[in-house]
Design a protein that fits this description.
α15 (372-381) links the parallel β10 and β11. α7 (117-135) packs across α8 and α14 runs parallel beside α15 (372-381). It is built from 19 helices and 15 strands. The protein is an alpha/beta fold and 513 residues long. It has helices spanning 10-13, 23-31, 36-41, 43-54, 90-106, 109-114, 117-135, 141-156, 162-166, 199-211, 260-265, 271-282, 297-305, 348-355, 372-381, 396-409, 416-426, 491-496, 500-512, and strands at 170-176, 181-185, 188-191, 223-227, 233-237, 247-251, 287-291, 314-318, 330-334, 362-365, 388-392, 429-435, 441-453, 456-470, 476-482. It is elongated. The structure holds adenosine-5'-diphosphate and magnesium ion. Adenosine-5'-diphosphate binds at residues 171, 254, 258, 263, 266, 268, 291, 293-299, 441.
Length: 513
């Protein structure tokens, strides 16, 4: 009875009338491969619009009028929130705030925190019912339930964020101050009608989140990374750094990680391409997964780990543990930010270096960002075949040059050529993930590193995603096409693992398209 309100399809419905793009230009543009960044970035502001349009008069204050000064409300008639629970009127918020304030005066919050959630909710229910009758608020039972849910979320949980956190279809929640909450669903970003009472309430919720990992956010330490109990990653940045109010970004943790078969279902990769990925994972190629933010790198890395032999000892290093390896012999390591006094930090580099003393057979680095690149390459070059990592880049070539600059900037004074030699010797395959402008995520390139010619790293594409056009709904059509390479460089490796026939077959199939 206290279950989450039926939010399931509300925002899903909102974006439908959206995105009628200037079509001719678009179709033209997509036939030529284009850099990821603009393609991925473009739809965002567009997608945001329709949802906002569905909302009641935009709640953004044009001038920053201090909210609390609002006049006290006349005893209210509450509008029915059940039609679209996300969009609530001013009147609703006024009633809620009256009841909420009365509630806070009545109950002892610290005592309430000691109760289990069910009893705490019962307690709040009784008091809210009393307040409603004393204040003479006109409300149906359903409205009362909905208000109660809302208030309980405020007092016991993450307030207006709760319904979003409960939804499994949301990948990211982005809060830009009290009145602008965006979500990403199926690769599309849209604005929700959800809002906070004010920046104070939002700040409290930020505080509650970061206090769970023993941190605080305030003017003196305005940036903080944290994690929700369910594993979701959170970043908080507050004023004065965030100009328009506390800003919260949540990458939701997916309990059911996608498998390679799911990626095939979604068309992220063709069946033959998936076969090649599977062989790459199984025959212990050293792999880099490259892509933009939210392009599906971690997901892809996770799917590749499924093909690691269960007898291997695998060590994973991450900023916040996201990978879910199914093998029995896995050690998971996580970096640590500095504490309030600024000490105690353990960096990715520390972890990767330490890994090497832990007798790993494979090392998996969640996200390579800095000087740990060098240690990962060293690991790849010293018998830890099958090591993997993700990094942020728009093409496989760019991934390789980013790797080079990470090493240079990490303070290793090695000649460029030497660094390239190390890279070429270490990395076998780069896999490119991309979020296309229709929101879909695709594996757009599987590329091998062949060697060095003079000072230039030579690569060879095995598989490319060709965009062919789009359907009436703006969904991009395309196909994964082999490039006709008969014998990739890891052929011998595949043979060693008895997988060369499968590899040959998969390569043939990709060429057939
Ligand atoms: N191929 C895919 N198809 C659909 N959704 C995907 C795909 N790959 C990833 N996702 C979803 O996209 C979101 C971001 O993926 P993630 O792997 O964390 O991205 P990254 O590591 O590149 O930032 C997650 O919610 C994930 O479930
Ligand atoms: Mg990631």
């Amino acid at each position: 009875m206290f279950g989450k309100r039926g939010l399931g399809d509300a925002p899903g419905a909102a974006p439908t009338p959206a995105v009628a793009p200037p079509s001719a230009a678009r179709v033209q543009a997509v036939t030529a491969p284009r850099p990821a960044a603009p393609a991925a970035a473009a739809p965002a502001p567009q997608a945001a619009r329709p949802a906002a349009a569905g909302a009641p008069a935009p709640p953004r204050p044009a001038t920053p009028a201090p909210r609390p000064a609002a006049p006290p409300p006349p005893p209210p008639r509450v509008p029915d929130p059940s039609e679209n629970p996300e969009y609530r009127s001013e009147a609703y918020y006024r009633v809620k705030s009256t009841i909420f304030n009365a509630l806070i005066e009545t109950i002892d919050l610290t005592q309430l925190a000691q109760l289990d959630p069910e009893s705490a909710r019962d307690e709040i229910r009784d008091i809210v019912a009393e307040i409603i009758s004393i204040k003479n608020v006109v409300m149906s039972i359903a409205e009362q339930e909905s208000l109660l849910d809302d208030i309980c979320n405020d007092v016991l949980g993450y307030g207006p964020l709760e319904p979003l956190l409960a939804r499994d279809d949301i990948a990211d929640v982005m809060v830009n101050g009290a009145n602008a909450v965006f979500i990403e669903v199926n690769g599309k970003i849209s604005k929700t009608g959800i809002r906070f009472r004010d920046n104070g309430q939002l700040m409290n919720i930020c505080q509650r989140i970061v206090s769970q990992v023993g941190r605080r956010v305030d003017e003196s330490s305005p940036i903080c990374d944290a994690r929700l109990p369910d594993g979701s990653r959170v970043n908080v940045i507050v004023p004065p750094l965030a100009i328009d109010g506390p800003t919260l970004t949540i990458r939701k943790f997916k309990k059911d990680k996608l498998k390679l078969s799911n990626l095939v279902e979604f068309g992220s990769i063709s069946p033959a391409g998936a076969k090649i990925l599977q062989i790459i994972g199984a025959c212990r190629c050293n792999v880099l997964i490259s892509g933009g933010t939210g392009s599906g790198k971690t997901t892809l890395l996770n799917t590749l780990t499924a093909f690691i032999d269960p007898t291997e000892r695998v060590i994973t290093c991450e900023d916040a543990a996201e990978l879910q390896l199914q093998q029995p012999h896995v050690v998971r390591l996580e970096t640590r930010p500095p504490n309030l006094e600024g000490s105690g930090q353990v960096t990715m580099r520390d972890l990767v270096k330490n890994c090497l003393r832990m007798r790993p057979e494979r090392i998996i680095v969640g996200e390579v960002r800095g000087s740990e690149a060098f240690d990962l390459l060293q690991a790849m070059n010293t018998g830890h075949d099958g090591s993997m990592g993700t990094l942020h880049a728009n093409t496989p070539r760019e991934a390789l040059s980013r790797l080079e600059s990470m090493i240079t900037m990490g303070g290793f004074s090695l000649p460029a050529k030497t660094i390239r030699e190390i890279i070429v010797a270490a990395v076998d395959v780069v896999i490119q993930a991309q979020r296309l402008r229709d929101g879909s995520r695709r594996i757009t390139q599987i590329t091998e590193v062949l060697g060095l010619e003079g000072d230039t790293i030579i690569t060879q594409d095995l598989l490319l995603y060709e965009i062919q056009g789009e359907d009436q709904n703006g969904r991009i059509n395309g196909r994964h096409k082999g490039t006709g390479v008969g014998r990739p460089r890891f052929w011998e490796r595949a043979r060693y693992f008895g997988l060369e026939k499968e590899l040959a077959q998969a390569l043939d199939e990709t060429e057939a398209g």
